[in-house]
Amino acid sequence: MDKKYAKNGKTKAFLKRNMYYIIMGVCILAIGAMITVALLTQDKTPVPDPVQNDPIPDPAGNDPDPVDNNPEEPVPTPIVFRLPVANEANVQMDYVMDTVVWWSTLKVYKVHNGIDFAGAETDTAVAAYKGVVRKVEYDALNGHYVEIDHGNGLVTYYGSLSEPAVAVGQQVEAGTVLGNLSTSATAEMKLGPHVHFAVYKDGKVVSPYDYLPEGDK
Ligand SMILES: [Zn+2]
Fold this sequence. Notes:
Layout: H1 2-44, H2 48-53, H3 65-69, E1 91-93, E2 96-103, E3 108-112, E4 115-118, E5 124-126, E6 131-139, E7 143-149, E8 154-161, E9 171-172, E10 177-180, E11 194-201, E12 204-206
Antiparallel strand pairs: 1-4, 2-3, 4-11, 5-10, 6-7, 6-9, 7-8, 8-11, 11-12
The structure holds zinc ion.
């Protein structure tokens, strides 16, 4: 214990005696450090100049044109149907969803979710727009019917056909013959030969007039 105190005492005495030199030493180190920092910073300053010069020749790479082309997305053209009948359009029963209408065959008031285009049994029903046949079926109320998938949730329906002339999975164009007008839909028999044309968007009935050209009503 005593030795320790003695040592501490010696150290204190040494520090007191040499304090002047110690402070001088610290100051010299500090000045040296400042000079070093100053020199290093000076060295760095000239470096950016050549770096700044580099981008100037680059404008020769003024070919951002291909880059500009990428954001240009094609504007989707609105879908316009052709009439689903090859011959003259004769609307026998119109699309009515906001109120009920008299169904002469069923003798009830109901909405009518499509347009009935009537004609002769020799007249053909045709695809209103290009797509893929997704259903060719028959039931007593709707008769022979065909559904065409046009993509993006858009589907067209053709009911009361004679024997369909297309098969499931078949690619069709606007105007492809689907079958003849007929009275196969017993729910609409009294209307005579016709095609019941309906349009679905995302599984819901929409007005065919949203897609038919103006003035076809
Ligand atoms: Zn109908």
